[in-house]
Amino acid sequence: MHLHVEFKFPFLKLKKCLLQFNKGLTIFKNGKFTKIENQFIYKLIKRSKNPLEKLLCYVNLQIQNFAMDTSIKIFKIVSFLEAISFLLLLFIAMPLKYIWDMPEYVRVVGMAHGILFVLYLFGAYWMYEKLNWSFKVLGIVMICSVLPFGPFYADKKYLPSA
C-alpha cells in the first residue's frame, strides 16, 4: 500500500514521493524510482525547513517501524506455536498413537503442526526480506523448523527483541 504525496525537497528538487510501509522512502526522480534508506530520511528531517516535509518523513518512519514491529511479532507468534505443536506431536501425540493406540491426537495435532510449519517457512522468507538476512541465515532458520526446540533458538539468535 502506498501513500502518494507530491511536494518538493528544496535541496533535492523532487517532484513526487511515495511513502511505502516497509520499503523505505521511494522517490521519483528523473523518470526512475529510487529507494532512500532510513538514515537518509533522518537527514531529510533535520535539514528540512518545511514543517510539512518534516511531518511526512516522520510519519513515514513511524509507519515503517510499526509495520516492521508487527511483522516480527507475527513471525514470533507463528514460530512459538510451530515449536509447541512440534513438541506436542513428538512427545505426546506420537506416544499416544504407538504406545496406547490412540491415533486421533496425531491427526489433530499433526494437521495444526503442518499448517504452522508452512506458515513458519513463509514467515522465515518474509523475515529474510524484511531484516535483510543472508541466505545462510535463512537456511539456518528454515533448518531450525525441523529440529525440536529449533524455532526457540532461531527466535533468540536471529530475531530482534521487540
SSE succession: EEEEHHHHH
* Residues in β-strands, percent: 5-15%
Please give the order of strands in the largest beta sheet: 1-2-3-4
Count all strands and give the number: 4
Unreliable residue runs: 1-24, 27-33
- Average residue pLDDT: 76
Taking the alpha carbons of the first and last residues, their distance comes to 24 Å
* Overall body shape: elongated
Largest sheet: 4 strands, antiparallel
Helix/strand structural class = alpha+beta
Q: Give the radius of gyration.
A: 22 Å
**What count of helical segments does DSSP give?**
5
Helix content: 55-70%
Overall tally of domains:
2
Word description of this protein:
By secondary structure, the chain is α+β, with helices and mostly antiparallel strands. It has 2 domains: 2-64, no CATH class; 69-158. Helices cover 64% and strands 12% of the residues. It has 5 helices and 4 strands. The protein has helices at 38-47, 51-98, 104-130, 135-144, 150-158; strands at 2-5, 16-20, 25-29, 32-36. Strands 1-2-3-4 form a 4-stranded antiparallel β-sheet. Strand 2 and strand 3 (25-29) form a beta hairpin. Helix 4 packs antiparallel against helix 5 (150-158).
